[in-house]
């Protein structure tokens, strides 16, 4: 009986802790997977059988100590090559916070995988090899984090043991990276000197760097302020399903079900349905079989309206006083994730929240070179891992927010209508948080690959 009570208390305590989604990024061999493995191992988040499997695999490869990178590099190709290829998600918790971790690849050719992992992250950990400092791939990852509006970035200067734990090496790298990321509009940057292999400043403070008085990586992850309170944001309910039981008990019930993407809805509130623009009033909110007066993100609810108006999947219910403009001309930054190129004139499907419409790529304005943030105008097409500015014309009006205002209702996907392949992930509105003046580079034929 006591064990059952203890378990219940532990689960209750765990559910009360906050959740942090974070992603790791860095160049090849900077030690991302080792850092993640060390984080999991030293925070006691690794099961015994997992650790035994890693130890066995490490011995088979001739290593005396367990290679903690194998805790995340799960694909056979990853283990054989010693690199990260796919995004590896890990879930763990400490008494202070729960975590969803996305370990993303470092290769240039897998930039699209980093975009996937960081798209929902509250924080990004960018690793740098202390021996190499800030390199092109470091700047690339900082730029991606800025594009995706990741609110917190940690610069983990790794392999400090290989530079004799020199403070001046760390200070120089931290200063260069902070200046670059700040220019891109990253709102908060925290630099931490670590050795993932030795465990310095990952979970426990390092005895080798008494000159550093800041938090360890885990301490920062546990204490960084993360606001999941989206109740003050623009209220948005993408309709997923129209509920009409038509039973003897509920002959006239008509509800509009979906997950609240942001904001708060209240009974009695006037609302507008987009893209039609028709208006009504919320007369009821059903949540988990109960009637409530107020509902907020990310609750899944059913709204009841005063008027029987034509509403279907893909429509967006918003407060009448806070409705976004609808448009058929979408200007956005996209990251191309498919192997086949995206070309001007290409017919696509655009998926925004629960709505999918036909569209055509009217213009590819530019392709962004993340190394130096130069813009290559009118490249004609985007290939895998390219990031560029596009104009898309949709067959039906869409109610998009700016990505800067809402990562949920400001994002969309471009899909191949022939086979359903995801072509690109899009972010409506301005690219970076600051209006940085980017250099325009025109090559001879207007193409650059």
Describe this structure in words.
This protein is of the alpha+beta class and 449 residues long. Helix content is 20%, strand content 33%. It has helices at residues 2-16, 32-42, 48-60, 76-81, 111-118, 136-147, 167-184, 217-223; strands spanning 18-26, 88-93, 97-103, 123-129, 152-158, 188-193, 237-238, 241-243, 255-259, 264-266, 270-274, 278-287, 290-292, 294-296, 300-305, 316-319, 327-336, 342-343, 347-352, 355-369, 374-377, 381-382, 387-398, 411-415, 422-428. The strands form 5 sheets. Strands 7, 8, 9, 11, 12, 13, 15 and 16 form an 8-stranded antiparallel sheet that branches. The protein has a 6-stranded mixed sheet with strand order 2-3-1-4-5-6, sandwiched between helices. The N and C termini lie far apart (66 Å). Mean pLDDT is 84; it is low at 1-16, 75-85, 435-439 and 441-449.
How would you briefly describe this protein structure?
The protein is of the alpha+beta class.
Radius of gyration: 24 Å
Globally, the shape reads globular
* Spans where pLDDT lies below 50 across 5 or more residues: 1-16, 75-85, 435-439, 441-449
Q: Average pLDDT across residues?
A: 84
**Could you give the distance between the termini?**
66 Å
The helix fraction, in percent, is: 10-25%
Structural class: alpha+beta
Which structural traits does this protein have?
449 residues, alpha+beta, 8-stranded antiparallel beta sheet, 6-stranded mixed beta sheet, 25 strands, 20% helix, disordered N terminus
